[in-house]
Amino acid sequence: MVKVLKPGLYSTVQDFGRTGYQEFGVPYSGTMDHYAAKIVNMLLGNDENAAVIEMTMTGASLQFECDTLISISGANMSPELNKKNIPINKAVAVKQGDVLSFGKLQSGFRSYLGILSGFKTEKILNSRSMYVPITHAQVLKKGEILPVENLPFGHSRKHAQIKIDKSYLSSETLEVFKGPEFDRLTITQQKTLLKTKFSISKDNNRMAYQLEGRFENKLDPIITSAVMPGTVQLTPSGKLIILMRDCQTTGGYPRVLQLADNALNVMAQKFTGQTVSFMMLL
């Protein structure tokens, strides 16, 4: 078991989310940064969909009630085990009674904690991802107990070396495809959209990131249609909104772009005031 001593700013249990339920209005949810989540599970020899803890801007404080292995990837939040620095992007052994904590945010915005065999919280609609009202809580709470498996006797800690690309944490480029309504923009608008550097507004969360500034919009409204994580919507007022993992399943704003999956990982590590630009994939 793992006890939550302090939950941090916004910490949740996530896996790769819920698929097959969007027709019922259920969001995909899941880890904002799939790449970092895959890394922590690969380092531990877990299934890539094993549940992890996602921490936003500030880390949690956790006490381990059993011997196990952990790994951390994504944002560097200066992790410490029993007040001693530990590395990220490596498997680390912990013992019963050990306390994991985090300090200053060094890079990125969201950090991921994996544990051997994954966190064994309740699975609902084939996923452990936290999202109210599907799950009973939106975030981890102080004093909460998270079920995990003990370290098996004789378990090998040796795993293949993994080449990790950290460049996406600082990248400002979002690779995109044309959205369904992209060709309804004028040629000038299309060029402006792909040449402009946009700043991230304070209105950003697991549902969507809003970009600062206004983009000329003379498009007619569309009939409410399907959207998904990575869809870039253009509002009547000219605001651009990038939908993220907890987004709704339908929307009525023109869908001018669609982020590639790796671009969603880049976006997940951004915060207010940072800038991004779009690069069209052919």
UniProtKB/TrEMBL annotation:
Name of this chain's protein: Biotin-dependent carboxyltransferase family protein
Organism: Tamlana crocina
ATP-binding listed as a keyword: yes
Keywords for the protein's UniProt record, in alphabetical order: ATP-binding, Hydrolase, Nucleotide-binding
A matching Pfam family: CT_A_B
Organism classification: Bacteria, Pseudomonadati, Bacteroidota, Flavobacteriia, Flavobacteriales
Annotated Carboxyltransferase domain residues: 23-282
